[in-house]
């Protein structure tokens, strides 16, 4: 691997001209020392500031790795890497079609890193590796987005040894690809909500309580100063905004997991943080060591965090615009907005890496990078709110809910309907994180399996806590239902560089 030079100057992705214009504007390096002082002290990762030599295929194999170099985290921390170059490298990592020369494949390990019998097939559809590229699944309506049904993944099977023939939910839990647009804002909302919940709980005595974060209620039970039961969030009170069941803390954890699971690419921070190894361990037995540096993961994280936020596409015809507005009012009238909250507010508009709530195996301190979600990254970006904050129009409460009842079987898989106590490690009664609707207009299909082809089907598949809202929608006239759907279809991922609202014929 070789270190990417930290060029300063033109920031190719900071300010992207709208539509057909090709002009670009300069941007500043995305390092904010005042913010990162709050992070834990950096003891240093030996070797991370050094240059990395490129991976090589065997001498008798005349091919090349998918990317020509890897980032050293020390160069990012020192400010040698501009925001535009970090974003660019993250996009390259996200879009690369990884191959054997890069270390693709994990013949001797499962997707959790446990040992398995080596010499299994290079690609295994159910338990992985199952993809060459992140963008191979995240591509609707463009790179970084959601995925078609054909891109579904199996999120239990990566722990098996391996699952080759079975699609039984006991072995492989099929899930549709999530869209990553606006993900930086979502992660920062979850961090602020976590801090509010934990601070509130620390002030309370034993008993049942309702805690509020961003105005959203979470019920908890405390005993001996510890949270022993909770609804809508785990008992650690860490809001986990990623995956269908709300089980992943951050973009960084999401990325570290995905590279190992789906590509068989081994992040050093998950498998090789022993300084004595010199970042030179071939954990998965594929003949390649040092496959993904800490800097590579930072770049991929920042790239996803800096993807554009979704916006609105409104019709040019006045009558059609009135129908969209009427649908928005009806959306609130039938109480869909109680959970799909139209707007939440960040107190601080900086995206700061890393997330201090990251679990073991994912860097949670010791590195330092930040950028302003309203000033850097793809356009459209977040809107300012107050002196330091921003508005996040994501239509979610980042809370887990029970959407299952006896009348709803579409979203509740067979085992869950039969009373399976856990799903993806979460209680079966609170399986679904409230979906972010700000991209719903062009991110079909829907549902946790991607087997719902229309927004109407997705609405009708709500039960449990959402039963009353679902039934209120059903009781609307067909014209009013169409207005709700037209409103929802106006919430879209926009072309790169667009303003937040587009008017189209």
From TrEMBL:
Residue stretches making up the Cytochrome c domain: 322-492
InterPro entries reported for this sequence: Cyt_c-like_dom, Cyt_c-like_dom_sf, Cytochrome_c_Peroxidase/MauG, DHOR
PROSITE patterns referenced in this protein's UniProt entry, alphabetically: CYTC
Keyword Membrane: no
Alphabetized SUPFAM superfamilies for the sequence: Cytochrome c
Record keywords, A-Z: Heme, Iron, Metal-binding
Recorded GO MF terms: cytochrome-c peroxidase activity; electron transfer activity; heme binding; metal ion binding
The protein, known as: Cytochrome c domain-containing protein
Taxonomic classification: Bacteria, Pseudomonadati, Pseudomonadota, Gammaproteobacteria, Cellvibrionales
């Amino acid at each position: 691997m070789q270190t990417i030079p930290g060029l300063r100057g033109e920031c190719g992705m900071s300010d992207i001209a709208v539509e057909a214009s090709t002009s670009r504007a300069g941007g500043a390096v995305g390092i904010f020392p005042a913010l990162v002082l709050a992070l834990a002290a950096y003891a240093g990762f030996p070797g991370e500031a050094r240059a990395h030599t490129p991976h090589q295929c065997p001498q008798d194999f005349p091919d090349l790795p998918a990317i020509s170099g890897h980032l050293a985290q020390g160069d990012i921390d020192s400010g040698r890497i501009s925001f535009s170059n970090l974003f660019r490298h993250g996009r390259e990592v996200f879009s690369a079609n990884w191959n054997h020369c890069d270390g693709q494949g994990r013949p001797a390990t499962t997707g959790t890193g446990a040992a398995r019998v080596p010499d299994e097939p290079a690609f295994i559809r159910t338990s992985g590796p199952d993809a060459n590229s992140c963008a191979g699944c995240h591509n609707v309506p463009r790179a970084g987005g959601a995925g078609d049904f054909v891109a579904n993944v199996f999120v239990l099977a990566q722990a098996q040894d391996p699952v080759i023939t079975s699609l039984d939910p006991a072995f492989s839990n099929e899930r549709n690809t999530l869209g990553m647009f606006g993900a930086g804002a979502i992660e920062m909302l979850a961090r602020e909500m976590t801090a509010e919940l934990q601070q509130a709980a620390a002030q309370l005595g034993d008993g049942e309580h309702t805690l509020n974060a961003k105005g959203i209620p979470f019920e908890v039970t405390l005993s001996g100063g510890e949270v022993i039961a909770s609804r809508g969030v785990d008992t650690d009170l860490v809001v986990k905004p990623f995956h269908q069941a709300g089980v992943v803390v951050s973009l960084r954890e999401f990325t570290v997991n995905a590279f190992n699971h789906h590509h068989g690419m081994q992040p050093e921070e998950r498998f090789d943080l022993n300084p004595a190894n010199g970042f030179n361990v071939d954990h998965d037995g594929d003949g390649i060591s040092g496959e993904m540096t800490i800097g590579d993961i930072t770049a991929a994280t920042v790239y996803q965090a800096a993807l554009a936020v979704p916006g609105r596409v409104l019709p040019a015809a006045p009558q059609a615009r009135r129908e969209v507005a009427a649908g928005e009012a009806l959306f609130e009238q039938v109480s869909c907005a109680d959970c799909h909250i139209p707007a939440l507010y960040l107190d601080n508009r900086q995206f700061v890496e890393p997330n201090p709530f990251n679990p073991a195996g994912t860097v949670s301190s010791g590195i330092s990078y930040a950028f302003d979600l309203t000033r850097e990254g793809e356009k459209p970006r977040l809107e300012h709110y107050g002196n330091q904050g921003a508005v996040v129009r994501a239509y979610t409460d980042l809370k887990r809910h029970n959407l299952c009842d006896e009348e709803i079987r579409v979203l509740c898989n067979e085992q869950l309907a039969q009373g399976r106590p856990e799903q993806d490690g979460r209680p079966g009664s609170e399986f679904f994180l409230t979906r972010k609707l700000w991209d719903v207009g062009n991110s079909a299909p829907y549902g946790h399996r991607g087997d719902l082809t229309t927004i109407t089907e997705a609405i009708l598949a709500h039960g449990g806590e959402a039963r009353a809202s679902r039934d209120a929608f059903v009781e609307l006239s067909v014209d009013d239902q169409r207005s709700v759907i037209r409103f929802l279809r106006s919430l879209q991922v926009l072309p790169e560089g667009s303003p937040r609202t587009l008017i189209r014929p």
